[in-house]
Amino acid sequence: MQTTVSSPSTRLLVAIDSDDPLREDYLRLPQTDTTRRFGFDIDRLAIRVLQPDQTGDMVRAMNSAVRPFVDQDDLIIGMVNDDHRFRTKGWDKRVAETLQRPGIAYGDDLFQGSKLVCGGVFINAPIVKALGWYCLPTCSHLFVDNAWGVLGMTMDRLTYLPDVVIEHLHPFAGKAEWDDRYEAANNQGVIDADNLAYHEWRDGGQMRRDVERVLRAIA
Fold first, then answer.
1. pLDDT (0 to 100) of residue 173
2. What count of Cα atoms within 13 Å lies in the side-chain half-sphere of residue 186?
3. Residues in the chain where the model's pLDDT stays below 70
4. Main-chain phi, psi angles of 78, to 5 degrees
């Protein structure tokens, strides 16, 4: 990642569970040169430990991790997982230029392309603050990308950046092996529950209310 950023203000926040067996190793990273194993300079890296009530699934963890930062009006918040790889040099500058007009921007994940908002998703902090969430909180893992997409399109604030490649090394793309973690997040029970939660949000009136609240906040 370090080899692809161009702005000195770009930072990486690593969120870990309080019971992570490697917790102490993570916490020592900013104090040692082993940080470079992540491809990131020490002064660009921050570690945040999430308590049990702040995590349990990807959505709760992400929303908890970004909550302390939403009051920074000039901040752009993006989410990537450990199966994303940044391939484009200067991607951060390209995203920042695009989001001078607040909205939602995403890159090419070399799998879904423009079809699904999952190639690294970046949102201006005032939008996250107005929503009260970064990932749709009624979901646990899936369909949050659908929510980003319909939210951005409804606001006319969605931008696909085909020149920003953030590769998604996911089993669905044939670029990783299925393991227990992927299965837990993508099994049929999660698919059905998150699909229902997304459609209830989209079609039940809450999405429209969220759009109106965001547009007022960024007007």
1. 74
2. 9
3. 31-43, 119
4. -125, 155
Backbone angles phi, psi at 8, to 5 degrees: -65, -15
**For the chain, what are the domain ranges?**
1-55, 75-218
Distance in Å from the first CA to the final CA of the chain: 33
Distance in angstroms (rounded) separating the CA atoms of residues 61 and 140: 10
How many whole angstroms separate alpha carbon 119 and alpha carbon 109?
4
User: For residue 61, which amino acid is it?
Assistant: A
* Residue-wise DSSP of 134-153: SS-TT-SSSSHHHHHHHHHH
Q: Which two tokens stand for residue 21?
A: 């067996």
Cβ atoms of residues 165 and 90 within 8 Å = no
Antiparallel, parallel or unpaired: β 76-79 and 45-50: unpaired
Contacts of 213 (CB under 8 A, 6+ apart): 130, 131
Residue 93 structure tokens: 């500058």
